[in-house]
Amino acid sequence: MADPTPPRSEIRALVDKIDALGKRVTDLERPSGTQQFNAVPNLEQAIADIQEQQTQIVAVQDDIIATNEAQAEQIAFLQTASVQDSRGSVTNETRGASGGISLEGVDGTYDCSVSLTTSSTGKLRVSVGAQLTGSDGVSAVVGYEVLIGGTVVVGVDWPRVAAAGGGLATTSRESLITVAANTAITVRTRRGWTGGTGGLCVWGYQSLIVTKEGL
């Protein structure tokens, strides 16, 4: 004998219960008014966080670029920090009494010359070397001068290299000077002689090294 069919009212009640449960689930899944109210500030905060992160990323990128530029500047400086020149000798030159120190004319064949742009400190280390001699009371000397735009701003500094009369002497001296910063300059050697009587001068091999101090 078949099971008896439940009354229609019980089936309807079960369907209504299922419908009610479905509605509660839907309500639970739908954001509440409070959640909707908080959604906008949360979104704004998320956008602000993203913008802050972007700002930080840009700052890091700027730091990297600045570091790279500084390194490039340092490399470029190191590549040009020192410049040098050397020239052959002049021999068997007779000069009369100088009455002090007399200058030879500038001669690119014999006189050293270097050009560079100074650092932000304007400090230069100048090293001059030469082989010199003289006779009959005359001494050959070698100094240097600094020019900016063709104008001498540091006169010939004779004490840096000098040789008394007698045999051929190799001598060198170094000095630290300060000139205009970040400026194109030329440093060159100058030959001269000194003595109370006439005699033979020999300006031997010359060398000039100029090194920038500081960036």
CA(first)-CA(last) distance: 109 Å
* Spans where pLDDT lies below 50 across 5 or more residues: none
- Please state the overall shape, judged from the principal axes of the Cα atoms: rod-shaped
CATH class of the largest domain: Mainly Beta
**What are the secondary-structure elements, in order, as H or E?**
HHEEEEEEEEEEE
Strand content: 35-45%
Strand runs, count: 11
Largest sheet: 6 strands, antiparallel
Computed CA radius of gyration, to the nearest angstrom: 44 Å
Structural class label:
alpha+beta
The overall pLDDT, averaged over residues, is 79
Second rung of CATH, namely the architecture of the largest domain:
Sandwich
Instruction: Tell me which oligomeric state these chains represent.
Output: single chain
Instruction: Please give the domain count.
Output: 2
CATH topology value of the largest domain:
Jelly Rolls
Helical segment count: 2
- Fraction of residues in helix: 25-40%
What does this structure look like?
The chain is an alpha+beta fold and 215 residues long. It folds into two domains: 80 residues; 132 residues, Jelly Rolls (Sandwich), CATH 2.60.120. It is 33% helix and 41% strand. The protein is built from two helices and eleven strands. A hairpin with a 2-residue loop joins strand 6 and strand 7. The longest helix is centred in the first third of the chain and has 48 residues.
Descriptive labels:
single chain; 215 residues; alpha+beta; Jelly Rolls; 2 domains; six-stranded antiparallel β-sheet; five-stranded antiparallel β-sheet; 33% helix; rod-shaped
